[in-house]
Amino acid sequence: MRFPLSLLDYLRRSPSPLRHQARCRCQPHLLRHLLPNSSASNMEGHGVVDLNDARDYNGGRGTLAQFVDSPANKAAWGDLRAADGSWFVRDDVFVSYLTEQGSQKAGALSVGFAVYDDKHHIGPELGIGRALGNAFAEPVLLIKTAWGGKSLAKDFRPPSAGGAVGPYYKQMIAEYRAAVAAIPTQFPALAGYTPRLDGVIWFQGWNDGCDEKAAAEYEGNLVHLITDMRAEFGNPKLSFVVGETGNMDNAVLRHAQRDGCLHKKVATGTSFVPTRQFLRDAKECPNPGHGHHWFGSGESYLLIGDALGKAAVQLAPDPRPAPALAPAPAPVTSSARPAQP
């Protein structure tokens, strides 16, 4: 499912005897999902995976490949890449993403679930999915919704904020529901599971930060967004993770994002994730002129996603029994496999 990055959907399954031997709290046949959603292009994904042209990609500085292949990072992140250099594909985490250009991406989590029709870019979904997959015994479905250059003040304007409801607020909800309905056809292995929306991940703010009025109103609009989405899905406790627009030098906006999460109306079940610490020196990134896209740093996008995913894990609700299903779906294994070239 999608979060305003987005929403994430978790698929619950029986634990593996090895990897999940200590996690006995799961209910078989329950699919958890999250909706990662964003009104900005940073959820779409501009993190460079492995492009290294000297003119366009700064010789490969700051790519995901450079970060993962560094001896200092092998122990923590080496699971993302096989010995032959291919990128691993998880078979316990899945992604559904309809790009702004109309390309439907649906499959097991790996590199390539960004806005481009290639395997050379990532968004935060890679780190999010990895964190969730490592934490839960159940399969996970991320429903990603993202459009570049959109504001919360106008494009995603929630109903309770007053004025015209943002067209992308409506589209986000519609695409989420369509993705849930398409689970049996897009993900046949998950067709027997009962989906449950466990939370929303919101990673957006650049366009609001470029407008003084929108930045000043962001706190209130964020509170309205969280309140309205919880009402939309009939769950006043729906988890909400908000990522800071840490690549922007606008303290008004960034403080509004934090303060919106702390507002008494929505604070319970809401988490603010600082991201400024993941911003890297432009000279050491693939796209030094693209500060609005974290300079294209694959490292930044991976670490941001990891932080967002870990926050979602902390807010995840306890499992509740899912209805009995007949026939039961085949278990989804917890091993990873190399991506096909």
Tags for this model:
two-stranded antiparallel sheet; alpha/beta; Rossmann fold; eight-stranded mixed β-sheet; 10 helices; 29% helix; 341 residues; 12 strands
The proportion of residues in beta strands is: 15-25%
Q: Would you tell me which CATH topology applies?
A: Rossmann fold
Oligomeric state as shown: single chain
The H-level CATH homologous superfamily, spelled out, is SGNH hydrolase
The first-level CATH class name: Alpha Beta
Query: What is the CATH architecture descriptor?
Result: 3-Layer(aba) Sandwich
Work out the radius of gyration.
Answer: 19 Å
Mean pLDDT: 86
Low-confidence stretches: 1-27, 320-338
**Global shape:** globular
Q: Give the total of domains.
A: 1
Q: Number of helix segments? A: 10
Helix percent reads: 25-40%
Give a short overview.
The protein has one domain: 3-Layer(aba) Sandwich (Rossmann fold), CATH 3.40.50. Helix content is 29%, strand content 18%. It contains 10 helices and 12 strands.
Tell me what the structure shows.
This protein has 341 residues and is of the alpha/beta class. The chain has one domain (5-338): Rossmann fold. The chain contains ten helices and twelve strands. The protein has helices at 41-44, 64-69, 74-77, 125-135, 167-181, 183-186, 206-209, 212-232, 251-262, 298-315, and strands at residues 5-11, 30-38, 47-48, 88-90, 93-98, 104-108, 121-122, 140-146, 194-203, 239-243, 270-273, 336-338. The strands form three sheets. Strands 1, 2, 5, 6, 8, 9, 10 and 11 form an eight-stranded mixed β-sheet that branches. Strands 3-7 form a two-stranded antiparallel sheet. Strands 4-12 form a two-stranded antiparallel sheet. It starts with a strand and ends with a strand.
